[in-house]
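1st attempt posting a full record on here, be nice pls
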Amino acid sequence: MCFYKEIEKSVDILKKGKILLYPTDTIWGLGCDAFNIQAIKKLYQIKNRSLSKPMIILVENMDRLCNLVGKISNFVGKIIINNKKRKPITIIYDNVSNVIFNLLNGVNTLAVRLTYDPFCVCLIKNLNKPIISTSANLSGFPSPKSFSDISSFILKKIDYAVEFRREEISNYSNSRIIKIVSDKIKILRV
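the predicted structure (as C-alpha cells):
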C-alpha cells in the first residue's frame, strides 16, 4: 500500500478512537490519540499494563512539544536538536497538568519524544494531535523489533496494523529516557 494511503487509513483509525499498530523510530508500537481517554484505557487493557505506568507521547515538531509541556529551556532544546542523528530520546517533563493522559495515572509529569521518523511525523501532522506510543507487546514481555516479533494476542486486539515497513528490523529496542534536573541529565533508561 502507498505511504500516503497508509497515513490516511491510520489517521482515520486514530480519529475513531481505535488502536493502531505502526512502525516507529524505534520499534513497532501501539498508538492512539493522546487526547482520547477511552482509547488510552483500551490501550492499557490490550497491554495488560497498570495505569500507574505512564506511556510515551510522540510529537512531530517543537511547536507541538511546547504546546504540551510549556516553554522548554535552551538546554533541553539543544539536547533535542543535537540528538537528531542518534538513538531516539524520550524526555520526562515535570509540572505538566494540561494533558488528559495525566488524569489516568495521577501524575504531573509527561514522557515525550520528538520523532523524526517520516511515517510518524506525517501521521501526527495529519492527525493534528500527538499520539500515545508504547511497545507492541504485553507488559513485561520483549519489545518487537520487527513486525514478525509481534504476538498473535496483540494482533487480535488492535484495530489496524499498518502495512508499511513490515520487513524491516529496528536498530533499537527502545528509546533512551532521560529527565533534566537543574540542567543536568539524569538517564532513566539507556
